[in-house]
Write a structure and sequence with these properties.
By secondary structure, this protein is an alpha/beta fold. It contains 12 helices and 17 strands. A hairpin with a 4-residue loop joins strand 2 and strand 3. It binds pyridoxal-5'-phosphate.
């Protein structure tokens, strides 16, 4: 089991995570190597971060080349990788402007500030069970009371609606609502996809209110669900999208994309990030975006089908999938670990699978066989 939460197992680190008792020293593709020399098949991928697998040659070469040229200039100047990444993301979105930061929570903070500035309204509609990050603003729109309880008072003006309940969404709207914030598939909250009807209704409601529809694609974006953005699988276009986790395959990055139609609210001085748009990170991210071809994305959907053959009840989209189990999910995580396979949880009794998008079907079969045993143990 996990070490006690105050364990100084390896270093004096504040115990914000219940870490497993293992130390990883290297990785390649879908495999991680521990300091013991033991190899583990990684169906977590840094929680939907290392989408191309560990040490993928494309972002590795791009980051190496950029490390040799230039690490940092500040946003007082232009750098090529940042501009190139913005252009690539704009193309994928179909016309957007980017703000770069270093994490998902920061991308959410950027979106909250953007919506206030763009609409002049402080109200926010978010969803119960959602997860948007741990900073005070992002926590304020995270619909999980246990994560919020010890940290109030939070940002005021947030109302919560029930996922896939249109009536509750409409009921949560206020005249001062500036943004409706939704994860197309709730990730940390248990892997619950939004229905097309619900996202349609959110789009219509945002238009009626004059509010921004902001999709948090920090976990669902960058190919994770089988399309570059998850929203492509729904018939709607958001006004803004947040990205982070998979964007630079493990280097820290976050992004807010604002559609061309909703752009124009931020002016110099409104928002900033010292490290945002870092050349090394952005060079790696450009390589990630270029590597996510139609063929690779089609492969994600094929591998989703492999998981569904093993586990017909799996919930989610693409390679963001979850299984409900009838004992504490942490026990299943541990039993899989003992079989050399890493999975993680998304709630008390939910096991989450977010393997590298590049995992082979052979590796996936191997991992899922071990997971089957771990569940049945
Ligand atoms: C992980 C996550 C975040 C927070 O990202 P951090 O990089 O941990 O700050 C925000 N939104 C969603 C949907 C996430 O999955």
């Amino acid at each position: 089991m996990s070490p006690p939460s105050n364990s100084l197992l390896l270093g004096p680190v504040l115990p914000t995570y219940a870490r497993q008792d293992v130390t990883f020293v290297s990785g390649e593709g879908a495999w991680l190597v521990a300091d013991s020399g033991e190899r583990y098949l990684d169906l977590v991928a840094g929680i939907a971060v290392v989408g191309l697998g560990h040490c993928h040659p494309a972002p590795l070469a791009a980051a190496h080349a950029q490390l040799d040229r230039l690490w940092h200039t500040s946003n007082l100047y232009w750098t090529e990788p940042m501009a190139e990444l913005a252009a690539r993301l704009s193309t994928r979105f179909g016309g957007a402007q980017a703000f770069f930061c270093n994490s998902g929570a920061e991308a959410i903070e950027s979106a909250l500030k953007y919506a206030r500035k763009a609409t002049g309204r402080p109200g926010l509609v978010a969803l119960e069970g959602s997860f948007h990050g741990r900073t005070l603003g992002a926590l304020s729109v995270t619909g999980q009371p246990a994560k919020r309880a010890a940290f109030g008072p939070l940002v005021p003006g947030v109302t919560f609606a029930t996922l896939n309940d249109v009536e509750s969404l409409v009921g949560a709207a206020r005249p001062d609502t500036g943004a409706i914030l939704i994860e197309p598939v709730q990730g940390e909250g248990g892997v619950h996809p939004a229905t097309a009807e619900f996202l349609d209704a959110a789009r219509t409601l945002a238009d009626e209110l004059g509010a921004l529809l902001v999709l948090d694609e920090v976990q669902t974006g960058v190919g994770r669900t089988g399309t570059f953005f998850c929203f492509e699988q729904y018939g709607i276009r958001p006004d803004a999208v947040t990205l982070a986790k998979g964007l630079a395959n493990g280097l820290p990055i976050g992004a807010l994309l604002v559609s061309d139609g909703a752009a124009g609210a931020f002016v110099p001085g409104d928002h900033a990030s010292t490290f945002g748009g870092n050349p090394v990170t952005c060079a790696a991210a450009c390589a990630v975006v270029d590597t996510l071809t139609d063929e690779l994305l089609a492969g994600v959907r094929e591998k989703e089908a492999v998981v569904r053959e093993w586990f017909p009840d799996a919930r989610g989209r693409g390679l963001l999938l979850a299984l409900d189990v009838d004992r504490p999910a942490s026990e299943v995580v541990q039993a899989a670990f003992e079989r050399g396979v890493l999975v993680c949880t998304a709630g008390e009794r939910t096991v989450r699978l977010t393997p590298p998008l590049t995992i082979t079907t052979g590796e996936l079969d191997h991992g899922l066989a071990a997971l089957r045993e771990a569940i049945d143990e």
